[in-house]
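dumping the sequnces here before i forget
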Amino acid sequence: MAWADICAFEDLVENSGICALLNGQQVAVFLLAPSDEPQVYAVGNYDPLGNANVLSRGILGSIGEQIVVASPLYKQHFSLTTGQCLEQPDVVIPVYRVKLQQGRVWLNAGQQNQQASAA
Amino acid sequence: MQQTKQILVIGNGMVGHHFVEQLRAKDPLVQITVLCGEAQLAYDRVHLSGYFSGTSAEQLALTTEEAYKASGIQYRLNCWVEQINREQQLVVTSHGGQFYYDELVFATGSYAFVPPIPGNDQPHCLVYRTLQDLDAIAQSAALSKVGVVIGGGLLGLEAANALKQLGLQTHVVEFAPQLMAVQLDQAGGQMLSQKITELGVQVHTGKATQAIVAGAECRYQLKFADGECLEADLVLFSAGIRPYDQLARSCGLAVGERGGIVVNDQCQTSDPHIYAIGECALWQQKIFGLVAPGYQMARVVVSQLTAGGLSFSGADMSTKLKLLGVEVGSIGDAHARTPGALSYVFTDPRAQVYKKMVVSKDGKRLLGAVLVGDTSNYDSLLQYALNDMLLPKQPEQLILPATSGAPLAALTLPNSATICSCHNVAKSDIVAAMDGGSCDLAGIKSCTKASTGCGGCTALLKSVVDDELKSRGVEVKNHLCEHFAYSRQELLHLVQVGGIKTFAELLSRHGQGLGCDICKPTVGSILASSWNDYVLKKPHVGLQDTNDTFLANMQKDGSYSVVPRIAGGEITAEKLLVIGQVALDFNLYTKITGGQRIDLFGARLEQLPAIWQRLVDAGFETGHAYGKSLRTVKSCVGSTWCRYGVQDSVGQAIAIENRYKGLRAPHKIKMAVSGCTRECAEAQSKDIGIIATENGWNLYVCGNGGMRPRHADLFATDLDTDTLIRYIDRILMLYIRTADRLQRTSVWMEKLDGGLDYLRKVIIDDELGLAAELENQMAALVNTYACEWKATLDDPQALKRFRQFVNSPDADENIVFVEERAQIRPATAEEKRQWQQQIPVTEIAVKALAEEN
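..and the predicted 3d for all of it:
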């Protein structure tokens, strides 16, 4: 799968999310910056429980060891590493591979978690 | 499967209709035929008097002929049954029609009893039972000035209300020495008489009407047994009901001595193929004249005809209602007839409130209650009675006015109490989830779905869970979440004492993990009310809920609504035009809010800055509709225009709104100012309510509407403006400093040890010596206020966030609108599938954006 150049690193918002368009798919990209080592995560922007493209506007955090985003609509938590909804484990959103290179943010259109449904 | 059965229903009142509806829902195939004696299908008889205050017959209707047809329900109107042949299972109507049945259901209801008084059959002597009766009453009323209702029971008072609404001078005549003798005790009946008399209805109790003869001044004269008389043009009988059981008698079914078709626990009559439900049925020598037991019987019969299982076991006849505007409630043994029963009575002659509680001999159980003038205790009393709950040690607290602050005691809620109405989760479901091993909020939410709908029950749910944990001996920590082992109040102290300015600093010094959607917005609010930094400053951005981040209210489809501040609800014509033009240009849906301002819906994320640029240029500021902060200060028009106003309520509201706008708090804050005691601004339903007096202002505190409405308490009277503002400063600042997350002022005050009195001591008497400090803190916040939208528009970095995609100018294709009542609304999922191709709103919006730039 090909990598796509999405935006400059500066376009990310610290401890929050932005949304990118990748081959017609909406992808939420989060920058977690608790330490010197910035961590970037990418998941589908569509909240399958609220049925709207809003996850990039959710609040980041951790529940136990899981790094999560809370949907701004009904507050369910989705894991940023597995895409699984903590409240309804049968609901899984796509997780995308993401890398930082030369000050740019790259996304890979191939989903990382195969179990996520395309819908 | 058996062959499809023929079910025949006689009568289409509320109960008959409920039966048909329930049966069809359970069995889509069964043949249902309804024979309805009236000219229209079922309508709401409970709210019949609304017919005279503007409710149309269509609005009262419970169904339509189309709906019956669509569900395959056969029906005949104006159809009276002549005869029933039980052997052949055949019903013959007066038109000669014949209907075969497998099972027959009597839902014939009842008719108004007309006492055998000579002269009761004259043209303007009427009854109050059906829509046709109502038409006759209206016709007669047009030719009458004075009306009298014979019968002072529940229905009689309803009828009196109808006559009053028709503009007649209204009398009520009751044979018993008091009104509503079935439901109320004597003192309660007296209080009700007094209140109703003040509302302009003359009450005559202990009067036996002996004859209705021609009158001297009016059409008729009622002659009473005691020699007195009363003149009236219209006589309305409402002296009770009698079951329609003639048909059952004539076909040989068992009926009671005083009427009513005898049924067993399955609502079966003496013929196993014939059932009777509602007011025509007699169960254990009792007739149930309320709609709820009738519905229960309907469901019992539906269960008999389908899966089986349900049986009728009597019904609670407790009632709560508003008669002629007076609240009345009656529960269980209202007359204290249980041997050994004890009564507690509270009377407030000034407010005209009467409350009585009947308790068992040992004082442990509630047997009954009477409430007149204030039924706010009805629900909790009813729960005590129905669930046979153990009363508190001092049961009188339950009916005494809540001066000491009756706590929201979740533990005392019965298990059947509904906590989350969106997902219909009862307290018992939550307890079961905890029995099943869930012992934290998140777990309980995920397995019961409670609080995952509108979220309005979040605080109540937490309270239930905490209390339940406490009762199980689990130590409940008031910790905000897993990241901070502190309450909100403790965190606020840590922030202020430590001079902590960012979430990261607080987390590293006092917390663990990364934070979450609970602690981040809470800390954001604490930081804002401590230092009043711009909420979108870089370190604070990630703390805010989306509404605070984008300074707008997210709607279900991910679009936003925009609410400019309209302080006190006062707005110039020019500004109205601006709002209208903005709405037109961006194709927004407009709606007037309850807080006297205008909400603009359907703005997409990337449109918000352009919309606000226009609004800010025209002099608008953000309305903070998105924040846990001051929302609005509602006002009535006040002494400037109103004949009754005694102070300038609008001016006061505007000054107060401008003083506290932007103030971040544990929850939203609403206020109102009324210009006189008529209270048109509804200030007593607000966190801070102000009502003008001849001498100044009365201050009410800690009220709210919403899910658990609470009247505000009178805090101080006849204040001058300066004192008024100082008290509000102190109260709000104390609330911000000590309340829990998402705790409204009402719950906060109720949970304060000592309640309202304690609050008075701190605020008015300054017993803690805090007053000056609280005022200074408020002054600092007021002085550093800045409109967040103006600040955002001036900040290119902040503006960058207002785009759907970081790498594309496209709009979110999932936001699609359709037109309804000449405005947009979000398309349903089905509509989106159908019209995926046309997205007209996007084009309009893009055009508007292009013009802006």
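The first strand of chain B starts at residue 6 and ends at 10.
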